[in-house]
Design brief:
Residues 1-14 have a biased composition (Basic residues). The protein is α+β, with helices and mostly antiparallel strands and 67 residues long. It has helices spanning 17-29, 53-60, 63-66; strands spanning 30-35, 38-43, 47-48, 51-52.
Length: 67
C-alpha cells in the first residue's frame, strides 16, 4: 500500500488582544484538574494573602479558636 503524501500544515492564527485578555481572565479564574483521567476546569478556591483560606486560618488563628 503506497503512503499518502502529507498535506502542508496551515499556520496557527495569532490571538487578538481581546482573545488574549479573555484567556488570561479564564486562567486566573479557573484551574485544571484531572477527574477520571479527563481534564476538568473548576473555579479556583479564594485566596487570602496568597494562601488558601483554611491554611490562612490555621496559621493566624488563636489556639483557643482552633480547639
Amino acid at each position: 500500500m503506497p503512503k499518502k503524501p502529507k498535506s502542508p500544515k496551515k499556520p496557527k492564527k495569532k490571538l487578538t488582544p481581546e482573545q488574549k485578555a479573555e484567556k488570561r481572565r479564564r486562567k486566573a479564574e479557573f484551574e485544571t484538574i484531572f477527574v477520571g483521567g479527563k481534564q476538568k476546569r473548576v473555579r479556583r478556591r479564594p485566596l487570602v494573602e496568597g494562601l488558601d483560606h483554611d491554611e490562612f486560618i490555621r496559621r493566624n488563628a488563636d489556639p483557643i479558636w482552633l480547639h
